[in-house]
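Encode chain A's predicted structure.
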Amino acid sequence: MKNRRAFTLVELLVVIAIIAVLIAILLPALQAAKRNANSVKCLSNLRQVGMAFQMYEADNKGMWPIAVHRNDGHIPVPNGLPEVRWPDQIARYIAANKNIAYDRLDLMRERSVLWGCPEWIKSSDRVGGTVDGFADRVRLGYGMQYYPIDRKEQNLAYIGPPFGKYTAAAKWLVHGTERGLVADSITHILEVPDTLSRSTSRWQPFDGGSAGYVPGGVNVDSTRHARPGTTKQMSANNRYMNMLFCDGHATPVSVKEAWNAIHNPGEDKTTP
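Encoded structure for chain A:
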């Protein structure tokens, strides 16, 4: 009988090295494919959120939900609740649990498209720091903008003392294909400044505090679907997050496009 020749140590190390190289080559591609798949699922969930706005409209005399209705506003909060936010107003149409208060949105994790972005877990995970439990209970990874007509206080879709009002869907739908409504965000509202400079302005997740809010900045999660290590300047012009528009379609957008869609739909007023 012939003696069988065993692998030498050198040959075994070569095989291991080849496997390691293949893994190093394939892993980024697999991670990119996963990110793309999650982005597609996020877009689908945003479209369902858009359908919920339409169903709310049918049940509320043509009006759309507002970003926030505070209990100290000039219009009483429905049912005497302490506060109502946009997810509460549409939850009945797309959430299994239809009576979740605005401060217990964590109960919808993995059970509703309102907590729909697969890349979102909670505020503290996204901003890389610790925030109080309240922030994680009131934020679900999507934010709604509150400028349906213009930036005058009396027209804001945010009721507080003494400003804001509910606005008819017909007003929201002016330039509806270009007007952004809901997008990836660490906060529950999409607040934007009057001007946007791609070189000096601030936006999530780079310039926020421990809870991710960027005072005076663009509160959109600019790298939600980007690869790790994406820089702020890369996010200014590249489409790394998703946005739902008032006409019901959803698409990836950049910070520049998101700001224009909220501040001046159909126009580009950004500066270098």
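The helical segments are 9-59, 86-94, 123-127, 133-138, 169-172, 232-237, 255-263.
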